[in-house]
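Lecture notes, part 5. Sequence design as translation. It can be helpful to think of inverse folding as translation between two languages: the language of shapes and the language of residues. The source text, in structure tokens, appears below.
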């Protein structure tokens, strides 16, 4: 099972409000993960969690990162820890990537079946004209290391730089740039 892990916990200070509350980004991002091949989606909320939760369908799985203000690392740790034991890999996606569509997620997810390895051992991430970005597929075998390394606003960056990650070129599908300002 591959689960989408949507990180939407930040306050969005440069945006002027939490990005989970911007336009339709939250609901759209869940759809992108599902349509891209994720069997399930877990949304990690933090700032304005109750307001953001009200935008979601009642049956949407949600985890709240109480320590969200520490940075992206806190929501990544909380999300990975909240995924169930049947999940072999997580596709980590950010709510503030409105130009990234299901086609990008599908391309990254497809690496778990084309590498000839168990998806629980995989590490793959979208790249946009050679620049690494999101979404990132993290196999369960790597979760403990990612959780340990995920501090501050770096998320899994240090862990990924220290390991063999398959870059999946997606620059023909999207720009992959996060949106920080209106």
């Amino acid at each position: 099972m591959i689960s989408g892990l949507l990180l939407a916990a930040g306050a969005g200070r440069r945006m002027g409000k939490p990005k989970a509350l911007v336009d339709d980004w939250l609901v759209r991002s869940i759809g992108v993960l599902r349509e891209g091949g994720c069997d399930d989606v877990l949304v990690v909320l933090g700032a304005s969690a109750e307001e953001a939760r009200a935008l979601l369908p009642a049956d949407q799985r949600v985890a709240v990162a109480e320590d969200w203000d520490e940075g992206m690392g806190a929501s990544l740790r909380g999300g990975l820890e909240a995924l169930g034991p049947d999940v072999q890999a997580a596709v980590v996606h950010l709510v503030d990537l409105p130009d990234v569509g299901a086609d990008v997620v599908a391309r990254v997810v497809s690496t778990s079946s084309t590498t000839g390895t168990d998806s629980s051992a995989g590490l793959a991430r979208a790249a946009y004209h050679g620049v690494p970005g999101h979404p990132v597929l993290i196999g369960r075998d790597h979760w403990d290391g990612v959780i340990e390394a995920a501090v501050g606003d770096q998320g899994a960056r240090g862990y990924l730089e220290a390991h063999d990650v398959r870059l999946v070129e997606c620059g023909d599908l999207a720009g992959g740039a996060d949106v920080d300002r209106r």
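The translated text above is only one of many valid answers, since several sequences can fold into similar shapes. The CA atoms of residues 103 and 161 lie 25 Å apart.
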